[in-house]
Structure formats: structure tokens, C-alpha cells
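Q&A log
Question type: sequence-to-structure
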Amino acid sequence: MESNFFIQLLNKPPFLLGIVTLLGYCLLRKDVTTVLKGTIKTIVGFMLLQVGSGVLVSTFKPVIEKLSQYHGINGSIIDTYASMVAVENAMKDSYSWVGYAVLLALLINILLVVFRRITGIRTIMLTGHIMFQQVGLIALFYFLFGFSMWETIIYSAIIIALYWGIFCNMMYKPTEAVTGGAGFSIGHQQQFASWIACKVAPKLGNKEESVDALKLPKWLHIFNDSIAATAIIMTLFFGIILLSFGVDNVQAMAGPNTHWSLYIFETGLKFAVAIQIIIVGVRMFVAELSEAFKGISERLIPNAVLAIDCAAIYAFSPNAVVFGFMWGALGQFVAIAGLLLFKFPIMIIPGFVPMFFSNATIGVFANHFGGWKAVMKICFVMGIIEVLGSAWALHIFLQNGTPIDAWMGMADWAILFPPILQGLSISHLFIYVLIVLAMVYMFFAARTLRAEEAAEKLQHANDVRNLPDEDSNSIVAENLKQAEALSQDRRAVRILAVCGSGQGSSMMMKMKIATYLDKKGIKNVMDSCAVTDYKSKLANTDIIVCSKHLIHEITVGEGQYSLGVTNMLNPATFGDELIALINQVPD
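Response status: OK
Response body:
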């Protein structure tokens, strides 16, 4: 009976992830209260995800069933959270395999960085919610294609770890160029697409003609609010689909007590509600796991480059974010119309998250290297590819007799992964082709990295030799004096880090600011959230720190302050401004 208890414990995803958080915090020697709170929040967060998935399925399933009944086609949504729900619903208790695969993939990624002089990999993926989404879809493929538990875990971990390592690594230098040497890379779902954008943008436009010089309509900034944007987009698309059934049929679905138009509006809003519940749950368990992962990885590989949420670059080109989204959305609409025109057996329903974040990110890189003309052309084409590539991936599952009702929808999951899954569906030996290609990349990357490290070491030695002793001593003395002034007889300053979704860049910013202030001896209490949630935390906040592209969304009360920053992940770049605000906070 005892052995059954432990087997069941490890096979229940919420408890498995809770155990991972517990072990991570114990390894980091956190106090008992932190360990207990983190473990409970991880378990509760995943349970919230399960509740949200139930709401999503109950909203989405009737529409898809009627779509098949009236038009004879399968409906699938391209959305990161809907795909996460599809994985969880299809794998049920076997979803715990995803947890094991994430841990193994992270370990492989760490090893690739530890041996970077051989692999050329310097980046480690630390965008927690993305890690689970990506591993989950590959694990779902192996699960539905009949592979065993350990085959699914090992193969999924290898494929995703190579994706994290190689493509985050490829985006390190372009991210440095965009951010002016911020010291991080992006770890999201469009690294390869962004790399392509960096290469072709100079041929499609002029980088001097930046989109940030254009005046965009203010109403477009409504898409910074994911709740409102999701409700608008999903109401629009569900409305089109439902009306295609005929008003009488929609009224029959609504029932006698609800007008058909209200039913359409409610359906779109329920989708937004379900996604918000899922986001809250994911945010809760990922926040704890990310802190544990980050602490462990930094202890094992202190010189690694962190690959983080794509939103960390948005402040460097706010207009490119909106412009890229706008043209990517237009491309998606054109592609969906094409699929309908040619009577493709799968109806693609776009979701806001990939439509915005995929094309916004690509837009920032395209703008930096090719200006607004490059953003327009590249993002429009990427929007088309995101739909067509997703349709290809969904068709692979349909051909296997195991259709799924959601796919990621992000650019890399429309460019890279459909051909990968097609190859794996033909033969499981295709994974060895991927490994060989990865080794070829690593050979050249390692050679380049060793040369760069040798040059950096020489440059650092020259810089140290040329730095006068009195300069370094005066800097240290000034820092100590500043820290002492702020730490004496002050309560802890309460700082809230805010980003678009509250899952990636704000959590990393929270940890970075905490470390920065701790080193200066400034007592602090840190928290993070999405821009849509900050008002609920204002009562316990002194200072809000967010990306500059979101600062117009923030309103604070008397005695509170807000700070918009460009480089969210390097507090040294805004430290003076932050400390000046801390000095103004009432004791």
C-alpha cells in the first residue's frame, strides 16, 4: 500500500511539481516558511490550471462539435494555453511525464552550458511556463503515437533541450544588439523566426527608418491588455463561426432563455475567463518553479546567459511591438481565409497570445535591423506561416487517427516543429538526424565561443591594468555610503515588478532587483504581477517597476511611485533612479 501511495504521488502532476519546488528550495537552503509556501502555491497553481481547462473545454467543445456537424471540418485553436489544456486533457494522469521531461530537459540544457567550450552553448532557458508548454506538446506527440513512458520522457527532453540550447544561443547576439548589451537572450517560442527576421530585414528595409518614428493610433494599445484583447478577438471569431451555422441553430444552442447574440458574446467572454484562470494558475506554480530553477542553475553555472521571456525586449521598441502584431494578425486572417477557400479539413481559430507575442517579438528584431518596412513584410508573412504551419502540425495528428483541438500557434511551432514531427512520424530514428544536425551547429559555435572568450579575457586584463586604484576605491566607498544611508532605521521598501503577462520578465525582474538591493543592504519586499492585476496589489506597494512600454498603463496613489525602465533585467541601468524613489518613500 505504501509503494502505491508513492507511485500515485509521483504520477499526480500537481504533487510532482510541488515536490520539485520543495527539493529546489531545500537545495537553495531557503527557510521553512518559504519552502512550505512555495510548495503549496505550486500545487494550488496547477490545480487552478485544471479548473481553467475544464471551463475552456466546456466552452470550446460544443462549438467544435457543431462545426463538424454543419460543415464537416475539425476546428482547432492556435493558442499556447489552449494547447497546454489539450495536452493535459489527452494525457490525463500521464501528464506527470511532462514534469519529468521538463526536469530532464533542464538538466541537459545545464550540461550543454557547463561544457560550453565543447558545445558552444552559453544560454540556459528559464521561462518556466514556456518550458512546460513546449515539452508538453512534444510529449503529447510521443504519447499519442504509442511510445512508452521513458521513451516519451527521454526523446521529448532531448529534442526540447537542443531547441532551447541552440536557438536561444543563436538569438544571444541579436538580443545584445537590440538591447545595447543587456546580457540576456530571449527564451520563448520564436527564436528561429526572429533569427530569420534579423538576417532578411536589412534586405527588406532601412534600419534608419524606425517604426518608433511613426505615430500609431492610441487605440491599438488596448492590445497591451491581454484580457480585453482575448475577449475581443475570441468574440469576433466565435461570432463568425457560430453565425455560419445559421441564426436558428445558434438560438437552439443558446436555449430558450438566452438571446443568440448574447450567447455569442458570452462564449467569447467565457473563453477569456478560462484563459485568465489558466494564466493565474500557471503564473502561480511557474513563479515558484522558476525561482528554484534559477537559483540552482546560477549555483551550478554562474556565468550562463539567461534566456528569458520575450517581453523583456519590448521597451526597446514599443511601436514595433504594436506594428508587428498588427501585420502578423493581418497575415493570419489572410491565411485562415485561404484555408477556408481551399476547403482544408481543419478550421484554424487564432488565439490572441501567439498572434501578439510571436509577431510583436519578431517585429522588434525586424525593426532594429530593417526599419518599419521590414516589420510590415516579415510579420505579414510570419502571420501566414503561423496559420499554415499550425495546420500542417494538426494534420499530422489527424492522419495518425489522434486529432487534437489545439496547437501552439507561435512562429517556431509553425516553421521548425511541423517538419520535425513529420520526420518523427515516418520513423522514430529521425531524432538521430536532429542530434547530428545539432552536433554540427555545436562544432562551429564552440569554435566561435572559444575565440570570443579568449578575446574577452585579454580585453578584461587590459581594462583592469588601466584602472587606477583610487577610482575603484571611491566607487566602493560611495556604494557603501549609499547603502548605509538607506538601510538605517528604514522599513523594507515594497516593490512590485510588472510585465504584460506576469509570468516571465516580471518574475525575473523581481529576482534581479531583490539581488541588487540585497547587495546594497537595502531591505525590500518584492512581488510581481501582470499589468492587468497591479491595482489589486497597490495597497501593499511603494514602488512599481515596469517596462517603459507599459508605464502609461500604471496609475499610483499619493506616496507611491512608478518607474518605467528600458532594460528590465539589469537593475544597474536604472539603480540610481530606483534608489532616488526609495529615498522618497515615507518611513
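Response note: Residues 491-583 form a domain with the Rossmann fold fold (CATH 3.40.50.2300).
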